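Hey everyone, long-time lurker, first post.

I ran two proteins through the pipeline my lab uses and got sequence/structure pairs for each. Pasting them in order. The first:
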Amino acid sequence: MRILVVEDERKLAAFLKHGLEEESYSVDIAYDGETALELASQNAYDAIILDVMLPKLDGFAVLAQLRARGDTTPVIMLTARGTPEERVMGLDLGADDYLPKPFHFEELLARLRSVLRRSSPERTVRLQCGDLVLDTRARVAYRGKEEIPLTPREYALLEYLMRHKNQTLSRTLILQHVWHPSFSGDSNIVDVYIKRLREKIERPGMPPLLQTVRGFGYRLHEPEEHSPGTPSNSA
């Protein structure tokens, strides 16, 4: 999932970016309100973490403009003051949650998970493709009754694929949402992680879930009823 952090305190912004990326989120940073609006107009974010006190445009102005142009991205507002009047103003403008500074990072994560679950019917706790199940609250995957051990990056990749099952996703799109839009490494990293994920989730003698679309990308396919001799579509 891709998050926009809007925070002018550079040490705090770097801390949030590092912590969120460790949780397998892809993170962009804006240090002022004008840049935040520009990035939000150019990219599709799953959530925005928005400080109130910002250069050029404050957080209230940013939020008001986002909502005025029909942007419904979940927004968590941060403020060092956190007066009742500020909280009411932020919520009235369309903020989804409000967190006063200083805060514990674990609380921010919990609030982020909460607004993501509420933001769309698709933000369900339990994702399923065939007998492959992903519990997004516990961040655990199962194939049948067997738990599948996943690294944070493998988990992020699988969640993105499961939220877009039966859709063909390009390597570039996967990089943008699972890694980072400015990732400068080789796009073959996607192929490496797909191979690792395939080795963990596929089962011998069963229809493949993770399909390669030659020359384009990958698709997590909802299987039909299993019939013996179904051909494999592995890379």
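...and the second, right after it:
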Amino acid sequence: MKKIMICLLAMFGLTSACGQQNVENVDVKGFSELTEDPGAILLDVRTAEEFAEGHIPGAINIDQKQDDFIEKAKSQLSTDKTIAVYCRSGRRSANAAGRLTAEGYKCLNLKGGILAWKEANMPVTTDTYEVDVFKTPSGKSVKFHALVHASIRMEYDGKEIEIDPVTKLGNKTIDYTAMPKADYIFVTHEHGDHFNVDAINLLTADGTQLVTNQRCADQLGKGKVMANGDKIQLSEDLTVEAVPAYNTTEGHLQFHPKGRDNGYILTIDGLRVYVAGDTEDIPEMSSIKDIDIAFLPCNQPYTMTTDQLVNTAKIIKPKVLFPYHYGQTDVSNIPSQLKDEGVEVRIRHYE
């Protein structure tokens, strides 16, 4: 009877004794290895205020004290991944790990929390951009930073790749002066939430390669122009393909007319990344194959509905899907719609 009561208490977050039986505590060295493991998701379960004061680079923040902790976890975390959980000292994260384990997740808990991490002189950042790490076929890391809306920063082998950089959108400002200069900048089209001259100038150095569609190149007076269907080898291990991106819904055709704008497929040391730009679920997507990571837009009237995005994911079948450019659209139901399709959905806070 006592054991049953402990388990019931654990369900309500009052203790995690039941779930903790299946949670492994790891030291700082073991936990640091997980930060570079694409098979693990780093989860900080402290408050948003604590997270902003300093956290382990690449961590996602979901406060385990909030009533909707499990609901948020299910919308953002995949049961196929190891969840590396930490808090201040290890107590709250042990509780959170126990609750997640009861929901079918495999969890590892940082023994001693971020206090032990700092004591070991391990890196801490105040950067609140969410970061995802993937491995190329040869084992090199590619880091994806969720900046804002359609702006994505990638780090690969000492190179900086920027997609549709903008310095300000709504109340959010992106400080590109705090980031390295870009080796490559890709611009999908001319709308202000994708094309920003100030951001491009801030990120440009002597060797920066700028890739755009014709309209953006005309406005900038520079850039390597790609039309739909073009393919360019930019370096030994980076290839880019420009693919169509346009509207098909009657009454929306003027937003992104066919043939004007680009989506891009980047092949980075064998890792194929599809950044769709502003588009609906167009027929040309049926020819897009072997995608490891896809960024698909979701906000009407400019891009897709959630149903169109789900349909696109079923056609393309990326290994990992990031809904982006979603504004106020509720994308929380997308993971459940694709759970049987072999597509892992990761929802990041781009807004």
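Reply from user beta_strand_b:
Welcome! Quick read of the second one: The CA atoms of residues 136 and 169 lie 32 Å apart. The radius of gyration is 21 Å.
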